[in-house]
Amino acid sequence: MTEVASTYDTTAEISDDHILRVDNLVKEFPITRGVFFKKQVGAVHAVADVSFYVKRGETLGLVGESGCGKSTTARSILRLLEPTSGDVWFNPEGGDPVNIPTANKETLRNLRRELQIIFQDPYASLNPRMTVASIVAEPMTVHNVGTKQDRLDRVKELLKVVGLSPEHTNRYPHEFSGGQRQRIGVARALALNPSFMVLDEPVSALDVSIQAQVLNLLQDLQEELGLTYLFIAHDLSVVRHISDRVAVMYLGRIVELADRNALYEEPMHPYTHALLSAVPIPDPEVESNRVRIILEGDIPSPANPPSGCRFHTRCPKAVEGVCDTDDPQLRELAEEHWVACHYPEVRKVF
């Protein structure tokens, strides 16, 4: 295996065909002690030096175990959480790139029209005291878009787009099923015609039969409206279905980033090998012959991450004196296939 390029260049300018570029993003939560005079005694390193880009019109899947920093990364990108450090360049159509962490309030407010998020839990993300019309129209109200009648017409149009009846505008969230509530959340996110959307595990709280409906809806909307998605999930089957490229995250770091087919057919990182070996295959004969990779030990605490490679405490290929001391950088080992590992290896797991 020959190395095609050097480590990921975080100093290059954002490309015209990239809508988002994240460079060295860090998010830490302070650990304090004391009742009145709180003193910081440590920090939870939730996101540690994450870099990637999202191409215009594509879906980038972000996967990993619970607690690895996926949602924190997404919220830091949108500045729902203030990043500790790093750059997030957003490249709007026909405009100049904007660095979201350093943008002032007015610039950030204008950017909100381009950047939207769909949350994981449709039962918690909708205000139970507001009607559907008020929920979906709220972004337009906040940004003073149109008259009251214009907003109501837009709400009815959006409800039709997501597969709900326009007659439901005066109903409340408790009158809908989980799948219908998530469709309301999608309608709300579409209200201002965004170009980039974060989908934070949008189907994980839904029944399997409803998941397919919502995923198909999201794909249809992407094709019709030219949307770009950052799709966060821990279900690798769902990610393979909807994503163009996939980034694998472990303990606040991206360890592998590649095209969907390359990642699933020729994964290089030991952690990706283990994740994919756990995906069930609907073929009893093939499934019975597979070798399941069982990782030993527990995930280290993000408040006290291991030195060197963060995965070395559970990695079956870890080499003492290398993996426990040297932090591997994200390198391009094949075309558009980035891996952060000292000893990468192509391994078929399906």
Question: Can you tag this structure with a few keywords?
Answer:
alpha/beta; 10 helices; 350 residues; 12 strands; 28% helix; single chain
Concise structural overview:
The chain is built from 10 helices and 12 strands. It has helices at 70-77, 105-111, 132-142, 148-161, 178-190, 208-225, 236-242, 260-265, 270-277, 284-289; strands at residues 18-33, 39-55, 59-63, 85-90, 98-99, 115-118, 196-200, 228-233, 245-250, 253-259, 331-334, 337-339.
Descriptive account of the structure:
The strands form two sheets. The protein has an eight-stranded mixed β-sheet, with helices on both faces. Strand 4 and strand 5 form a beta hairpin. Helix 3 crosses helix 4, helix 3 runs parallel beside helix 5 and helix 4 crosses helix 5. The chain has 350 residues and is α/β, with parallel strands linked by helices. The chain is 28% helix and 23% strand.
Number of helices: 10
Strand content: 15-25%
Please report the total strand number as a whole number.
12
**Alpha carbon gyration radius:** 21 Å
Helix/sheet category:
alpha/beta
Largest sheet: 8 strands, mixed
Catalogue the unreliable spans: none
Mean pLDDT: 90
Instruction: Summarize the amount of helix as a percent range.
Output: 25-40%
Q: N-to-C SSE series?
A: EEEHEEHEHHHEHEHEEHHHEE
N- to C-terminal distance: 21 Å
The spatial strand order of the largest sheet comes to 6-7-8-3-9-10-12-11
Using the alpha-carbon principal axes, give the shape.
Answer: globular
The oligomeric state is single chain
